[in-house]
Amino acid sequence: MGFNLVAAFIFLFFSFAALKRSPVSAYISALIAFTYISGILVGNFPTDVGFSLVINFIFIALILLAFCCTFRGKKIFWIKEDYSIVTQKWFLFSLSLMLTIVTATNILIVYSSISYVLGGNIDITAFKNQGGAAEMIRVWADPRLVFLSYGFSPLAYFSLALHFYFIFRGRVFLSLVFFIFSLNIPLVGLHSLSRSSIVHYFLLYFLIYCACYGGIPDKVKRKVNLIAGLFFTGIVAIFALITTSRFSGSSFSTIPGNSFVSSPILYSILNYASQWIVNSIGALEDFSLNHIWFGKSTFTVFDIVTGMIGFDTVDYGDLRQETLGQYSTKFIGLVATLVYEFSYIGAIYYVCLFYLFFRFLAPGRFEMRVSGILILIVFSSQPLMFFTNNYLGNTMYAIGAFYAIMIYILSNFFVKLNVPKY
Question: 137: helix, coil or strand?
Fold first, then answer.
């Protein structure tokens, strides 16, 4: 418990210190502190204290602090008019057409998944907690539709950037359209009735909203708050429904004796947020150089492409099973995942490159264009989900980062002035 208390204090202190100058850093730090506090409440904290545990605990805290420092000083006060290709009428129409197809595909797959589970064909607890849900989806959904969804749903990150851009421009209707398209982020996770995609989207939207709030025109704030509130009420309801279905009266999770929480549903939520603390320490204790993945999780997009060409690739799920053992189907967190990806030294290099790359691409403090919002959205996604780091999240992030780079190039090198837009 002492480790969690120390970590919670450190990240809360950093959050308050960064609140005025860097709301993004403060936001992520507060979330990290919350997970450590949740761990205290439900008994998710290391008990067998040893030298290696202390070293791993310090290493995890330092890496997470480094990620938080990446966003230092990034506070948006205005989004300037964007005259690049990505805001032209033909580009937005093409993007909307593609995302309409992707949205319909995701809704169809989610409906098929819910129907399959509710039909009694499979137990929802076994479906989610025994692993392999992403592969099982292909039993009742056309694999080609699943591939289409995984390949193009990450465009929803760009939709979210356009949503905030049009909010700043006072274009409420267009902001609503791209807000709906951005919901493909949680929809793709709902294929397997995953709560992580819902949490991801909720936290990501609120993060960008906080960063942009000071620059949103007063005349549209009330409309945006109302529309967003209605949608997020629905998202929270879905999250609660999935949680209740999986854990109400379920014997899957035995509440430990050192937990201060006795409600199965509340315990499942707090355990969801904090299980990474114990799992990451345990996974790092078992790590050896023979277990390095060599970027397998971070660069899943290359596996997808090479698999399409016809090359043999090592299945990521099998790799996790071989190297992580009992932790293969559990949340081990961002830092432990990076260590398994690149080793301890490689994880340090990764966060340094992450910092330098973001500081190079990120726009100025007071204004940004669509590409700047997209860079902020994509880069903040990875540290924002520090407590999960599952396969689908990594795949979405890797493909989303690829799209972000392409859109950044289009936005900054193909600018057309005086061209009619939307």
Answer: helix
